[in-house]
Amino acid sequence: MSDAQSLIELIPRLRRYARALVGDRATADDLLQDTLERAWSKLHLYRHGTDLRAWLFTVMHNVHVNRVRAARPTDPLEDEMPELAQRATQGDALVVRDLERGIAALPLAQREVLLLVALEDLSYNETARVLGIPIGTVMSRLARAREKLRLLLHGKGGTKLQVVK
Amino acid sequence: MSENQAISEAELQAWADDRLDEGRRAELEAWFTAHPEEAERAAAYRSFNEQLRVRYDPVLDEPVPPRLERAARRGLHLRSLALAAAWVALGIAIGTIAGWQLHALHTPAPAAQAEAPVIARRAALAHATYSPEVRHPVEVGADQEQHLVAWLSKRLGGDVRAPKLDSEGMALVGGRLLPRDPGPVAQFMYQNAQGRRVTLYVRTEGPDRRETAFRFAREGNVRVFYWIDRKFGYALSSADVDRDELLKLANAVYRQLNP
């Protein structure tokens, strides 16, 4: 009873994160629904007394990674991918008019760290635990995510981006 | 630059998240005055946090779609079954202890105190085992109440009644006969409009019975009020209602059995 109640109360905050993570509402709600279902099947792994929300972020991370892999097996999940630099030289996909598109342009691994820290206000340690990565990796992904976002939103050197026709 | 070495990228990120202690924050901000580009970069990072909140906080106020609420509730049954399984495992352990305690009753040692917790534990175990059941929570439904009561009375060898708790918002679901404890036991199940369940465990007491006041016990997440009254021992159990509510229900049961 209390588990179900806790899950229901956490839905809005999980939804906020899912929306920022995947963009559109329907996909985000699909992700959350899968996450809740998986959470129930894995509830025996949750340790009572620990942060349920953080645990659910972990479940959502796993569900999302699996979904992305299933949909696009070659999609870059790691932040070492140079795809943004490549796109930056192409010019056409360059104009990121708003935050939303900037977030979407980040590699998933960086996007997750940025959103858990900046939007969900998890500590760096909590973020590391949620994603199962060392805290040093959290910090480096966070730095790369923000710098990438800055370049996308403000252009290099803080000047507005020139659109190359 | 010595300052550059002193201030790490991680600290700059922490400044953007406002997670530095006050002293270190002041040091960074002093350093920023001499490094306007870094200052601008850090300020941009900080502004992203705010922009993210502005953009996504409204999601918190959106009405939750029914399918998500259903998904959040869906596992309840499975979860409860898992709990029941755990209780059965625990019950085997308790049964061993209880058997030992009952055995102790046959010795002249004053073991009356051990007797009461046994009924509470067994009632809690029975509650945890059957109350999660969705399809077959009871053997005989409330629609056959007369049959149910007659059947249980016959098996328990006494006039067993199913108290009415409708005035407390609890409707009788039905009842079942449980294995010997050491004699046969009746379990009545009640449920309110929210699906919360309580069970009343009724067993015959031996000839050396004595009446007791309400006593409270807790086994895992199951709360139990139990008492002995004349021929029967009673235990009212629930994992769904709090202690005060359970006491109210226990009082209602007691009043009906002793009009």
Can you put this structure into words, describing what you see?
Chain A has helices spanning 2-22, 25-41, 52-71, 83-90, 99-105, 108-119, 124-131, 135-154. Helix content of chain A is 68%, strand content 0%. Chain A is built from 8 helices and no strands. Mean pLDDT of chain A is 79; it is low at 78-97 and 157-165. Chain A is globular and about 50 Å long. In chain A, α2 (25-41) crosses α3. Chain A has 2 domains: 1-75, RNA polymerase sigma factor, region 2, helix turn helix motif (Rna Polymerase Sigma Factor, Chain: A); 77-165, Arc Repressor Mutant, subunit A. Chain B has 259 residues and is α+β, with helices and mostly antiparallel strands. Helices cover 51% and strands 17% of the residues of chain B. In chain B, a hairpin with a 6-residue loop joins β2 (171-178) and β3. The interface between A and B is large, with 42 and 41 residues.
Mean pLDDT of chain A: 79
Helix content of chain A: 55-70%
CATH class of the largest domain in chain A: Mainly Alpha
Stretches with pLDDT under 50, minimum 5 residues of chain B: 1-5, 99-116
Overall strand count of chain B = 7
How much of the polypeptide of chain B forms β-strand, as a percent range?
Answer: 15-25%
| Count of helical regions of chain B | 9
**Rg of chain B, please?**
30 Å
* Beta-strand content estimate of chain A: under 5%
The arrangement of helices and strands of chain A along the chain is: HHHHHHHH
The gross shape of chain A turns out to be globular
Number of individual domains of chain B: 2
Looking at the chains present, what oligomeric state does this protein adopt? heterodimer
Biggest interface and residues each: A-B, 42 and 41 residues
Radius of gyration computed on alpha carbons of chain A: 17 Å
Describe the main β-sheet of chain A briefly.
Answer: none
CATH architecture of the largest domain in chain B: 2-Layer Sandwich
Low-confidence stretches of chain A: 78-97, 157-165
Largest sheet, strands/sense/barrel of chain B: 7 strands, antiparallel
Please provide the ordered H/E string of secondary-structure elements of chain B. HHHHHHHEHEEEEEEH
